[in-house]
Amino acid sequence: MTRGYEFYGAEVSYFSGKVRAYLRYKRIPFSEITPTRDIYRNVILARVGWPVIPIIVTPEDETWQDSSEIIDNFEARFPEAPVYPQGARQKLAALLIEAYADEWLKLPAMHYRWTKNRDFAISEFGRLSRPDLDEAGRRAVGEETAKPFAGALPFLGVSEATGAAIEKSYEGLLAELDAHFARHEFLFGTRPSIGDFGLYGPLYAHQFRDPVSGEIMKKLAPNVVKWVQRMTKPPAPKGGAFLDHDEVPETVIPILARMMREFLPVLKKTAIALKAHVEANPQLIAGKEPVPRAIGQHEFTLEGATGTRAIFPFELWMLQRGLDFLATLQGEQREKAISMLEKAGGGELLSFPAFPRLTRRQFRLVLE
Fold first, then answer.
1. What is the pLDDT of residues 223-252, one digit of tens each?
2. Same domain flag for 135 and 217
3. Is 59 part of a structural domain of the chain?
4. Is the pLDDT of residue 62 over 60?
5. Are 86 and 34 in contact (CB under 8 A)?
6. φ, ψ for residue 309 (rounded to 5)?
7. Cβ 295 vs Cβ 274: under 8 Å
8. Cα separation of 82 and 239, whole Å?
9. 366: exposed, middle or buried (C-beta count within 10 Å: 0-12, 13-18, 19+)?
10. CA within 20 to 30 Å of 360's CA: 70, 132, 171, 350, which one?
11. Last residue of a domain, one of 25, 56, 77
12. Last residue of a domain, which of 246, 261, 276?
């Protein structure tokens, strides 16, 4: 190996935060490279085919993309201090929370960034994209770079009609997390899990770091702030332990229950929509064409408000990770995992609508 791992990411980026925190905890040597406009054109687009961060370029010149796959690839190479718990309940809960954080917490992350922190975000985008320009030039570039991000809000279901509900939900989640982190360093003990890294992405990059959101977090959830700081600078890299006896603390159950209440109905609708879409588009079955990023729209309900959002098949790929693990469980382990799900209002996962299996190939989502 002639070089280390190259991490193309940014502090302002949701999923960069998730991967960076993992690399720091595992003490994996890496160099972080800021994705300037030239880097996007000459490295990221050349390797992946579309503008996305984070990516990893390995010492062998392989390219890894998608935060979950990046972490899984690193876990295979650096198995010491695994971030996936061995216990059935803890691992299932961690996988479900990762899916919830990666996909559903985009709503508050994007709502707060573009309704309360817009000027800061535009400044950050300009600084990252064209650090060579003066302030006015960086501002102009930032405005242009921000357009697709801010323009994505309606597709995610973020609108004037849902804004107050998103804030109510987010503040409820903060209260639940704050109660948990008042008693535990991480979700399942003194070692961060894949669920912690999933939560860190939005809670650091968008909510803690963006100024208005950061003040909200400091005011409402000081224990979450301390957790963010532990995740940013781990007190025991490659150390800590998950709770004995596969314990899932009672304070985690409300977090899972929020996922089941808010996100599970969306996932069920998405599964039904994907099945219908594939039946209407049989060319997808060969797995040679990518599954579209969105396949129409549907209604969702959050804290009593109804909104419309795009239907994202990728959310099912994330859920599939947890469902696949659940399917491997037998005997007492399965019984205990089911008991946990039912306690959190997630019993419907046991009869989740069948949908075409998904995989990723050449950085795209396809049918397996």
1. 999 999 999 999 999 999 999 999 999 999
2. yes
3. yes
4. yes
5. no
6. -145, 165
7. yes
8. 10
9. middle
10. 350
11. 77
12. 261
Beta strand pairing status for 305-310 and 297-302?
A: antiparallel
CA distance 192 to 25: 8
Q: Using CA atoms, how far apart are residues 262 and 146, in angstroms rounded to an integer? A: 28
Cis bond upstream, residue 154 (ω within 30): no
Max Cα-Cα span within the chain = 64
For residue 227, count CB atoms less than 10 angstroms from its CB and return exposed for 0-12, middle for 13-18, buried for 19 or more.
buried
Note the pLDDT of residue 149. 83
Q: Rounded to 5 degrees, what angle do the CA atoms 318, 95, 302 make? A: 70
Task: Tell me if 82 is assigned to some domain.
Answer: no
Look at the chain and report how many structural domains it folds into: 3
What are the structure tokens assigned to 285, written together? 């079955």
Alpha carbon 195 to chain centroid distance?
9
pLDDT (tens digit per residue) in 308-343? 999 999 999 999 999 999 999 999 999 999 999 999
Domain that holds residue 42: 5-77
Band of residue 348 on the pLDDT scale cut at 50, 70, 90: very high
User: Quick check: 63 and 56 in contact, CB under 8 A?
Assistant: yes
Cβ pair 291, 311 in contact under 8 A: no
- Which residues 6+ apart lie within 8 Å of 344 measured at CB? 253, 256, 257, 259, 260
Helix (H, G, I), strand (E, B) or coil at 43: helix
> Which residues have CB under 8 Å from 282's CB, separation 6+?
none
Q: How far apart are CA 298 and CA 270, in angstroms?
A: 9
Q: What are the phi and psi torsion angles at 202 (to 5°)? A: -70, -40
**Residue type for position 59:** P
CA angle at 63 for the pair 58 and 64, rounded to the nearest 5°: 95
DSSP letter (8 states) at residue 204: I
Q: What is the pLDDT of residue 1?
A: 39
Q: How far is CA 335 from CA 94, 200, 244, 327, in A?
A: 17, 30, 18, 12
